[in-house]
Structure prediction request, 1404 residues.
Amino acid sequence: MTNKDMFKVFQGLSTATITTVLLKKGLRNVWMRGPKALHDTEQRYVGRAFTLRFVPVREDLATPAAWASPRSTRAAIEDMPDGCIAVVDAMGVADCGIFGDILCARMAKRGVAALVTDGAVRDVAGVLDTGLPVFCQGVAAPPSVAGLTFVGWQEPIGCGGVAVFPDDLVVADRDGAVVVPQAFVEAVAQEGQEQEALEQWIMDQVAGGAALPGLYPPNAETKARYEASRAKAT
Amino acid sequence: MTNKDMFKVFQGLSTATITTVLLKKGLRNVWMRGPKALHDTEQRYVGRAFTLRFVPVREDLATPAAWASPRSTRAAIEDMPDGCIAVVDAMGVADCGIFGDILCARMAKRGVAALVTDGAVRDVAGVLDTGLPVFCQGVAAPPSVAGLTFVGWQEPIGCGGVAVFPDDLVVADRDGAVVVPQAFVEAVAQEGQEQEALEQWIMDQVAGGAALPGLYPPNAETKARYEASRAKAT
Amino acid sequence: MTNKDMFKVFQGLSTATITTVLLKKGLRNVWMRGPKALHDTEQRYVGRAFTLRFVPVREDLATPAAWASPRSTRAAIEDMPDGCIAVVDAMGVADCGIFGDILCARMAKRGVAALVTDGAVRDVAGVLDTGLPVFCQGVAAPPSVAGLTFVGWQEPIGCGGVAVFPDDLVVADRDGAVVVPQAFVEAVAQEGQEQEALEQWIMDQVAGGAALPGLYPPNAETKARYEASRAKAT
Amino acid sequence: MTNKDMFKVFQGLSTATITTVLLKKGLRNVWMRGPKALHDTEQRYVGRAFTLRFVPVREDLATPAAWASPRSTRAAIEDMPDGCIAVVDAMGVADCGIFGDILCARMAKRGVAALVTDGAVRDVAGVLDTGLPVFCQGVAAPPSVAGLTFVGWQEPIGCGGVAVFPDDLVVADRDGAVVVPQAFVEAVAQEGQEQEALEQWIMDQVAGGAALPGLYPPNAETKARYEASRAKAT
Amino acid sequence: MTNKDMFKVFQGLSTATITTVLLKKGLRNVWMRGPKALHDTEQRYVGRAFTLRFVPVREDLATPAAWASPRSTRAAIEDMPDGCIAVVDAMGVADCGIFGDILCARMAKRGVAALVTDGAVRDVAGVLDTGLPVFCQGVAAPPSVAGLTFVGWQEPIGCGGVAVFPDDLVVADRDGAVVVPQAFVEAVAQEGQEQEALEQWIMDQVAGGAALPGLYPPNAETKARYEASRAKAT
Amino acid sequence: MTNKDMFKVFQGLSTATITTVLLKKGLRNVWMRGPKALHDTEQRYVGRAFTLRFVPVREDLATPAAWASPRSTRAAIEDMPDGCIAVVDAMGVADCGIFGDILCARMAKRGVAALVTDGAVRDVAGVLDTGLPVFCQGVAAPPSVAGLTFVGWQEPIGCGGVAVFPDDLVVADRDGAVVVPQAFVEAVAQEGQEQEALEQWIMDQVAGGAALPGLYPPNAETKARYEASRAKAT
Prediction:
């Protein structure tokens, strides 16, 4: 599968389905605690993780002046490739905003697919106006330097209790944001599609009044009926 | 009062009023911390509690395979009577979803009045489509087995820091979900109606510009005026 | 500046801008953790703080009967001046509601500009109907006396981890609520306006495709361009 | 009973017994969450509450300079009567120390019976050297002004989730610290002594191999045996 | 292996070693968060789990009178077999004590090997005197009924975020308390012993100045040296 | 001052004094929340920070096999210079142990001055035997890979809510652990010594019965007396 095809497949896989498939492979900790869509949306966002990392505030370093440093969030943003998902480790600090309207506007301009963080954003009215899809823990007026010090980008990070490595695949929808480690992307794409098809069929059975035991998860008889229905469909 | 009449009365009592009446009887801990309406609603939901209980995950037991066990959430759902409110003790675990669209669809089909939990649901878009009223702590993509093990139903449980026994009355509205223990149902129904009527009259006085002291709570003079107004109304 | 002019200026300053200006003056802790607009609003609210203080429940004192005491929330409300912002220290207790529809209706009637609390309100449907702008941590059915004891008003308080003194200036918008200590009001008004103008201009540059380094924060060259643009505008 | 006699009685009542007696009178919330003996001790401390109150830090007010203000912790300490228990509302903030060795030394000098707080103390080695009995949540190096602003004394406060009013009786031992509201002091003294005597007798029965049902709580037969044993003892 | 032999083996396995062995088998969640030895001890405690379960307080049910009910903690204690470890689900509630000195004395008398809970105990001086080994989250003066309602025993429970089933093996030492599910007991016993022997040998190498890479975990060369040393020892 | 002299000075400065001096310079956030001496000690530990960083567990990466990777905690330990203080960012995760007895034995062997972490250690009996001074949040049986993935060393980290950069000075005593940023080391050394001398003199005054106002902080008259006493002492 090309990268582009892969992305298209993941557009059709809910984060719920992805976590089920990964759990069957032994990965129980892939859903980030905290990030939640800031805007009402039916959409799903898919991209490679571009990571940013904060440590706690130290008043001599975390100042508005620091924003001009070459190791600033500004420099990190200018390094983001088109289509990436920026994943920001704010250590769950929710009483200052990592970014406001100006930084989000620039990210939108650069083609960033979405911003995911276990922290907060600020100037929420302005951020929503930029059109950048944001998954965060909340909203807070103070600037990042009130509680955080920026230290670097494209390093391994934690976000919402989940390890995120640069270039992991990230998928975000109304259920939140999940990481698909590189090594699992192909397998999840394939098994996820099968899972979605099966669950759609089960949903139809439930709509028709079927009871759950034997249906979900399907027993041998149900599986046979499902396979038969698929054969007919083709 | 018949059961049906009782339910009708409670449709007219806000959870705020119910907690005030129960507090006067010495019950301060009847409102569940966490459950919040997932959908925008002006409605109130009333039903007998049908309880479900989870314990923490143990990886050898909490697997997708477990869903086929006779002691599964599936079996519990098939046991739910029409009109009940399913109350689920998830121990406040909010990083996996106890149920998704398929289970909620089946519950809706079985006539469950509402789902109340101190945990989360998954596949929120699908859950909302089923029309099942859900009061939960949030939304999470991972399946229940990522963090929880299901152990049984119709047992005493804790939900949001409140004890819930099978067949307690549960009422849920925009202020959340409360339990009315069996032994208090009749008394709450009666005193609640009186309280609602009095507060409506007080609200009218406030709208007319009355000051609070002496009015709310009403002193003897206010009570007399209120009684007079009721007498006239009849 | 007159008080009225001052208020008008602050209507145009976002809480995000205010926190940035105060941080430059050494104040990092002015944004209250918890209070969030209960209603959808594009508006900003400005007023002098009128403080109220609760301590934890003691069952012999925190009873519905206490509401008739001269040291009750009712008496405090009757003392609120037109245009103030009521700031209520509920110690972050979110499982009972400090006020319901009747008290909020009276506050609206008295011209209170907004209610800000790190606690919850109850009877949310009724509260929204009163039109009183409310910034709170959430919604809960139980009355205040289920968890709190009211002890006084117009004292120094903590609200959401921030010290609030009577008559401090409070500003609340979609990013939450901030305190501007008396001694800083004039300076924030002036510097805040300059900051807003500069950020608006930077936002335009970003919209035009400008990169961040050198632009935000502005280096000498950018500052010169900005000054030139302002000169032209006049 | 004289005050002195009363104190002597309470020296013999465990905080466990006191909470049981108060619970029977409807007071469930009298034990402070957090305060724990800093030193190894078999002793029990009894005194009238002398309350102090902090609000969160505001950097312009919470400075070492503030320590010289007339509304400082220093002035409060000089106001403490001999034999009181200082109860300090630090809002549970545990990352700065409300007092260090110098202030504790002065309190010891003034005859303060104990210090109880839901916050931390600093310079723990020095504090222990002063001999002042301290019940706190922990130890932290930073001064109070790093996180707190002192605002007053002998006001109603919250400490560890419990309301404390000036002159309430406070008792602290290895199980922590409890408040006995003024109105309940006499009754607790009397019923507490009876409870301690009964439990001592039950403990002897258990030591002799008796089973619990019928013994604890005692049924009619056990009560009769107990009364008989008391009669004999006299 | 007989049950008695098995217990003897586990006396020699640290909880640290047990968790390492179980993790290799896919069980990451077997260590209870909270329980900690109340007394200074070098000992390790091993026994089958006898489970007890609490739900939150409901004031009409959680009263001292409830202690006389046939479904009380007293009845549960009389049901505990010699040598069991009582594991008590207090839902992490740490502001009341599940048991005090009388109940602990009776448990000691009945030969209970240890008490493990994610809650607190009360009357700590008395509890220590009974000699019953206790692993708990802390100490609190109030009786269980101040915050909890007892509902049953020998059911599946959660304790400190871990699922515990009746008759699971429980081991507790200075690192806390772990569960070994029935199906894993034999395997853990065997692999645990091997692991302890290997780690002891590695510890000796480190004492002799060896560097870690290649040593721990051992590479092929180290393994060979270890095997050789074992052969010599026999 | 030579490095060695500097260290000797800091041996005489309590962490309480250091935080007071840094606060006067605008640094309020230098004390790590969580790390606490594992052993009873009167000693103070001083060294340059050697940082290690963990992110959350990902089951495919956090395995015992990972311990053999070149980017493992083992490799980091072999890189630690004599006299350093290892500061480990465990993100506050306290339910697995970052290190056990073997790793601590090796660190002691390499001359590491102390281990400071906001996480836990395991195999506490063995760790204490190694003699390595440890400041941690607690003790837990499970291995690091049960909850954490190690990602690197000598990077900027957060530890207990404080930013720590490689080679910052770290001081730990019974009040916990603090960071002295490089740029402040000289100034803290000097002012800290003056502060300690002054506070010792004040302590003597308090022992002699002096009241606090005017004494601490010292007013002009007290300062004069203090200077006079110092002059005499020389």
